TrEMBL record:
InterPro entries given in the database record: ARM-like (IPR011989), ARM-type_fold (IPR016024), Pds5 (IPR039776)
Bias (Polar residues) ranges: 1119-1135, 1176-1186
Protein name as annotated: Sister chromatid cohesion protein PDS5 homolog A
Primary localisation category: nucleus
Organism of this sequence: Danionella cerebrum
Region (Disordered): 1023-1207
Keywords: Cell cycle, Cell division, Mitosis, Nucleus, Repeat
Top-level taxonomy: Eukaryota, Metazoa, Chordata, Craniata, Vertebrata
CDD domains the record matches: PDS5 (cd19953)
Key word Cell division present: yes
Gene3D superfamilies: Leucine-rich Repeat Variant
Amino acid sequence: MMEFPQQQRPAGDCKIIYPLGVKEITDKISNDEVVKRLKLVVKTYMDMDQDSEEEKQQYLALALHLASEFFLRNPNKDVRLLVACCLADIFRIYAPEAPYTSHDKLKEIFLFITRQLKGLEDTKSPQFNRYFYLLENLAWVKSYNICFELEDCNEIFIQLFKTLFSVINNSHNQKVQMHMLDLMSSIIMEGDGVTQELLDTILINLIPAHKNLNKQAYDLARTLLKRTVQAIETCIASFFNQVLVMGKSSVSDLSEHVFDLIQELFAIDPLLLVSVMPQLEFKLKSNDGEERFNDIHVPVRLECVKFASHCLMNHPDLAKDLTEFLKVRSHDPEEAIRHDVIVTIINAGKKDLNLVNDQLLGFVRERMLDKRWRVRKEAMMGLATLYKKYCLHHEAGKESALKISWIKDKLLHIYYQNSIDDKLLVEKIFAQYMVPHSLDTEEKMKCLYYLYACLDGNAVKEHQIRKHSQIKSEANSTAMVGKLLSIASKRALKNLPDPGKAQDFMKKFNQREITRKLTFPKQPTNPFLEMVKFLLERIAPVHIDSEAISALVKLLNKSVEGTADDDDEGVTPDAAIRAGLELLKVLSFTHPTSFHSAETYESLLQCLKMEDDKVAEAAIQIFRNTGQKIEAELPQIRSYEHFTSLHKVPLSRSLNADVPEQLITPLVSLGHISMLAPDQFASPMKSIVANFIVKDLLMNDRSMGNKNGRLWTSDEEVSPEVLAKVQAIKLLVRWLLGMKNNQSKSANSTLRLLSAMLVSEGDLTEQKKINKSDMSRLRLAAGSAILKLAQEPCYHDIITPEQFQLCGLVINDECYQVRQIFAQKLHVALVKLVLPLEYMAVFALCAKDPVKERRAHARQCLLKNISVRREYIKQNPTAHEKLLSLLPEYVVPYMIHLLAHDPDLTKPQEMEQLMDVKECLWFMLEVLMTKNENNSHSFLRKMVENIKQTKDAQAPDDPKANEKLYIVCDVALFVIVNKSTSCHLDSPKDPVLPSKFFTPPEKDFVNDKEYLTAEAKNVLQTGKIQQPQKPAGVLGAVNKTLPVTGRRPYNKTTASDTGSNASANSQPSSPGTNKSRDVSSEVGASENEENPIITKAGLKKEEAAQPSGRKRAAPVSDGTKNSVSSNTTPGSQPSAKPRRGRPPKTSAVAASSEKVAEGTTPAGGGRGRKRAAPSQDASNTATTEPKQQKEAEAKRVPPQRQIDLQR
């Protein structure tokens, strides 16, 4: 809401400054000229926002001038409309401080604006758009809320409501009605109340006579009432109470229409009449016998309710009649009467529980949800008193305790309410009436033990009983709702030298004489003493410490031994044991240190021997929550034999690959066990991994997958066998993470297995039994597994560059969800600084992602990662010693090496491939070069130049591999030089290159060759590739080179077909970069649904011959529902593009499968994942291709470019 400054700033204090091009507006110019100049002023204010502080100050005098009499009383309606638009924008711009400080001036302004809203009536007026803008602005800013500060704001609101209801008509669209509703509803809901006059302006539209005159006003009033039902219900109830009950018909002109209004309001929303219906019911049911209980006067009804208590206690035979009277009065609109109904019933119950029947107690139970706090508090405290008297102290036997056994559950259910008062009261009741703090520890824990055992599911659920069981202790859970005062005490105690001793002292402090003194203070109204007492009550009563846990464990042992009083407390021994363990599990979350005793853990070990699965599960959970120091403090409990002796059947015996549905839980359990207890389980797991996980599970495909053609399916549709294989891969990773060493070379074998999984696209056995969606799951699992292993230094060191490249290429997978999930896992690990810097280079490959959202996400990930690393270096002085692994600029060598080994970079001199390389480089460099911090641009240039003086460590003797590396370096240098003007300065430091990827520079080796031709530089500069000239006529056909048998000629595509993802403003130099990928890849389609392939109309056609770079989409021609029309002749079959990095089936993968089955996997004979795999089988093309090739060359019609958006 806007505020009013103390002093008015008169317009005459400073010169009025008009916007540029606007001359002074005075009464000496014509109306046309005034309108012309005001339009420019309106445009200026429309373009301003709240952050334009300089402009706000500049045009402040003009804002005050526009509120002068000359404008507010101008006879020209166009002038008035423009001024109203300016004033509406002024309130928006200067919020929350209104520039007009005089209340009279504000009232005049808003009445003036309200009058202008009458122009909304004529929708065909040429000025209607301005009237609509005025309404929209007022509704959006809630400008009328300023009027709440005015004494006579009701006059403005009434005038506004009347205006809006009068102008609404059937020519208005939904937006006009919506803004009207927003404007009026904000006044009703944010004001202190609705006056009777304002209520009349709404209700009058519901009267039949007015309803028929203006149907739109009637609908507007209905919608407004339905939207503001909670705020306006009280005002409506007051109106009907005065008219119906008190007979004051003069309060409103609508008094004679009350019954029509009741019918209309009930049809709109019955909640509008929540408080009115009881009044009507009393009036209809009133008779001589109950006349006084239903009297129209509140004091009479109040006295009757108070007298009912004496009747119940002295005349039990009248209980039935009194029950009916009190039932009605428990819903009385007066708070005091509802309160006294509760007092009457509770007083009778405290004297003798038999005096109150279940129905009367039900009235009290209902009032625990009363809308008034005083009533709710009385009901809750009254029931708590009955519970303590009859259930805790058993003053009337078991039958009485059973009668009100529901009280504890209902009281705890109140903790679900949102009110902090309710929560605090439940806590107080719990500590004083359910588990009284005055009892000693053993009695107190016994109350807690059996209370927990007797609670229903809703009372125990989630954080509720957890909250109560730990209340007033040092370890209150942060999951508790609300900021409790006990949290303050917890924090205070934690700041002391020894928090544990401090708590014991606080506990004793509460039990000593000061507590008794505070109970009977000499000045009971002293607020300081009341606050101290309140704090002490919240700190100590239910204090959970080692003594309390020990008492609970002893009770549990008695229940196990059968010597406890379980039957007397109304629970079975099994239920008591289960509930006791659940209670201990809850406490183990918040008080783990209180469990550290041999006696406690010995008792829990006995529970593990029980056949009840839930009991064993709770005991294991307690060990998990509290056992961090068992190894150091209680080694006898930690011993391997102590635990394994409890399990007669090893978990590994339940492994049966023929029933994959039952494999998930054992695999997950074995993985976590081997990770958490590597010393005991790492060695036994080796045989399970070699014989079952690898040979029996991963290297066998037992079932045939559902060939649905989709690249991704929901979790429910994934086959159980594939789910088991995914968990098997995770088990391998957890097993290795637990060992944290590679002495047995198991990590090397695992990495080779994962690499083979990626090379084979997820189908490790090559039996074609796995469908595409399941293969996507396995590829994702393999890539994620390598990421997880790379986070452990001992495994990161043995990951080869080839395996790193295979892992990185998962981010270019053909399945959209694989790319999405893998990128998110990569980002999270990098942000936590647990993954080596080289993996950030993988994000550079996202430049080739065909989906715009994925590229945008990758860019945001890069920004976040770079920001985190730079901030970490600033905040940690020791980080300067590890700059090689932290400084973001050091990602460039890894990126260059990764791009040099990109399987798509087959012909590095081809312009399209060079453009792809530039896109990937710029995708990373753009983020790195945003700022030239510490002369980082020259550092990057020096780093790339140094790489050119080395050789590729992955293939140092391969001239082609080194040439690719140098070409990528030249492209990187070209990008850096074109982007930065300061990169030629001297580098502050000499970059260090990773020896794993680059050889040390040789003394006699100097590489000063430029690998980019002038044409290539021009293409990189402009982003345009010159089209090859077409051969002319017959001569061209005669001179045409014949294709080699079995291979189609290579046709170069244009720059517009390369699918660059770089926008015009993201290039180092030229704005001419094409945006064909943005156009082609963002066509709407459900991701991976039935593998849709969309042909984008208007895209240039390209030859179906071997494409360069990544294959953006795969045409499907198998005649199924996934196929699209093809322009190739029936007799020709296009040669399939080789799968990305996939070795021939006859050699590499077959050998890989054999070695994996033997426990050793090959290093990977191929490279990475294809972008989109061809769906047709290329196996039949070898024999028919020479003949078909010639026919295709003569008849081939270039098909339209087809884009698969769902990868």
